[in-house]
Amino acid sequence: MKKVFLIAVLLVSVFVLGHGNEEHGVFEAPVQPTIQLMVTQDFNGGWNLHLITSNFIFAPENAGGQNFAGQGHAHLYVDGEKIARIYSDWYYLPPLSEGKHELTVTLNTNDHSDYYFEGKPVQSSLLVIETKPTSDSTSGIVLSQDDASFAVSHLISLGIGLVIGLSIAFYFLKKSGE
Predict the structure, then answer these.
(1) Which of 26, 48, 95, 145 is 20 to 30 A from residue 35's alpha carbon, by CA?
(2) What's the number of domains the chain is made of?
(3) Is residue 109 one of the residues assigned to a domain?
(4) Is residue 2, in this structure, part of any structural domain at all?
(5) Which residues contact 25 (CB under 8 A, 6 or more apart)?
């Protein structure tokens, strides 16, 4: 029983603190596609997302069809939840609830598989803070457009989760041996 509990603790630690989006297949791209997410506030509220890509063409006419390397569409995630498919390099995102939000855009094939290159997902992320609009300002702040900082923060979160999970596991293993 204790071993089952230990395994459950480890799995929960990794799942809760890791990103782990497994709902789509994976397509390993033969040539590296890239995406960079840029965000500006819309003067009337909300956010204008600009997706800058290379080695990739948006092909909405082929969505759901046969895959062709270097084409497809994007998926938009807000705080880890998929909220939209994007079929061009610009997208309007309505105002979000107040607070900090992580925006992630992934490149996807026609059949919605996630593009990967050399084992890594082709995606771009950033943080925004949605605030109450005032009469003389817009309603939010873009915190970061540095994908490296997101990678580091996700690795740190995953590492902390593993350390906590392993610590709990070793504690119970030690207790069961006494």
Answers:
(1) 95
(2) 1
(3) yes
(4) no
(5) 111, 112, 113, 114
Q: Distances in Å between the alpha carbon of 96 and those of 64, 132, 163?
A: 29, 10, 33
In a domain, 177, yes or no: no
Distance from C-alpha of 123 to C-alpha of 121, rounded to nearest angstrom = 6
3-state secondary structure 15-36: HHHCCCCCCCCEEECCCCCEEE
Query: In degrees, to the nearest 5, what angle opens at C-alpha 21 toward C-alphas 156 and 141?
Result: 60
- Specify whether the CB–CB gap between 49 and 38 falls below 8 A: yes
* Contact present, 57 and 71 (Cβ < 8 Å): yes
Residue 47's pLDDT is what?
96
**Structure confidence at residue 132 (pLDDT):** 75
d(C-alpha 67, C-alpha 112), whole Å: 9
The reported pLDDT for the residue numbered 20 is 41
Structural domain that includes position 63: 25-159
Q: Give me the average pLDDT of each 10-residue run along the chain (178 residues).
A: 38 35 76 96 94 97 93 97 97 96 97 95 96 64 53 50 63 69
